[in-house]
């Protein structure tokens, strides 16, 4: 893993499970279950869609409450895009 | 964290739920009608006192409605006291937390099932109360409405029980925030973005989980 990777810490609870499941389906994401948290790592930008994750707004807006080492490039009502810190906009 | 003052071998000191919460009201009849007749919470106790309050409102009524499981919601009605302007018109505001100071103080009552939550929404709407749509949070689902004083009220159901990892995560989030606040205060600044807290939390968890050591080994 390079220093320019981004990392998302997802608390292993049902309401955030769809985020982990989505990352498993993304070839650029490395997913590790580390007890309380699943850590999603990627060396490039990552995008998620609220509807695809099946999340209501109240949960969506706390999507990265587990912890996020990355820069949020955009975070709207329906999509979010994050990039590794220090990486320029694609 | 504070050291426990519990003597060795003694039962840990703990609370057993809510007895009552209390708010002031300047709308006696409307408040009784709303809680007793519209919500259907039994009026179970009233204190009427002479000369116990301060000079501007020495006499008052203090009354309690049963909100289940041994809990009550209570009101003070100060005779001769004038409603503060800050309360004017709040009863007609929509059931949204649009005042982040005033509306943050609210009571949330518990029901057991989604059917019960929907039944409360239906009952209140049938009796003329404006009720929010159901909002699903992380671990609870809620409806919101206002009482005749404009106070924000919530009825909620639990979506799941909280577990030990929720408590550990809660501590990690607030530890990150407090760390950042301490650092910001030292340079006369403040923390204004949740992004900064999420990043600090990721750094704290990364160290706890030895992620950097693992990644660069």
Helix content of chain A: 10-25%
* Adjacency order of strands in the biggest sheet of chain B: 1-4-3-2
CATH class of the largest domain in chain B: Alpha Beta
How much of the polypeptide of chain B forms β-strand, as a percent range?
15-25%
Which sequence of SSEs, written as H and E, runs from N to C of chain B?
EHEEEEHEEEHHH
Q: How do the strands line up in the largest sheet of chain A?
A: 2-3-1-5
Strand percent estimate of chain A? 35-45%
Number of strands of chain B: 8
Write the layout of secondary structure elements.
The complex is a heterodimer of chains A (90) and B (217).
Chain A: E1 6-11, H1 17-24, E2 29-34, E3 37-42, E4 46-49, H2 50-53, H3 57-60, E5 68-69, E6 71-75, E7 79-83
Antiparallel strand pairs in A: 1-3, 1-5, 2-3, 4-7, 6-7
Chain B: E1 20-25, H1 28-38, E2 43-49, E3 60-66, E4 72-78, E5 107-111, H2 114-126, E6 135-136, E7 140-146, E8 152-158, H3 164-186, H4 194-208, H5 211-216
Parallel strand pairs in B: 1-4, 5-8
Antiparallel strand pairs in B: 2-3, 3-4, 6-7, 7-8
What does this 3D model show about the protein?
The complex is a heterodimer of chains A (90) and B (217). Helices cover 18% and strands 38% of the residues of chain A. By secondary structure, chain A is of the alpha+beta class. Chain A has one domain: Phenol Hydroxylase P2 Protein (Alpha-Beta Complex). In chain A, strands 2-3-1-5 form a 4-stranded antiparallel beta sheet, covered by helices on one side. In chain A, a hairpin with a 3-residue loop joins β6 and β7. Chain B has 217 residues and is an alpha/beta fold. The two termini of chain B are 34 Å apart. The interface between A and B is medium-sized, with 27 and 28 residues.
